[in-house]
Design goal:
alpha+beta; 7 helices
Length: 201
Amino acid sequence: MDDLNIKGSGNDDIIKKASGAYRPQTLEEFLKEMDELPRARLSKKVEDGIVSTPNGKRPDPSVYMSKKEIDIHLSLFDDGAVKIQSKESFENAVQRYGSSIGDPDTGTYVLPKNVVDKAISVSDGNPRVLEKLLGLEPGYLGDTPILLDINKMDGIRIPTGNESGAWQGFWEPGGFTNGGIPEAVVNQIPSGGYTVTDVFK
């Protein structure tokens, strides 16, 4: 029976919640958990070289990450992927692409669903904290960000940094935001391939 004691899915978690003893993660605990996730540890020289290369000319991640590192990273999305953006940028995208989300050529950034649930919790209703975790410019999410829960995901891959959403000074190679959260890119999400809810309910 010991083999059935899978981390995070045992009865202990359920009992703690039911008895009121369950305590949400702090921001520090969340960041520590993210830092302990498997990742490609790139040298500063390699990282700086990739970042300083202009958007559109950066190398494919397979150049500096092993197949195993890539596979392990993408497995973080096995439980689903989501996207967080401001209400305004979502509405602009709908006008621009007709309800499809993301650039038709370079795709759109997504985050693991289970990680984002925790990130929302530790941000405690503060969009500025969430922006920092997601590696976004301060104020980008506005005051009422929305969550896109993706149900039709195609072409998931490690970001190259050549995507339209790879902002200079914010994007980092290796599949993590500069706030320490794992990220990936998927092909443009078609209309009907996602559901929309408010991040802070």
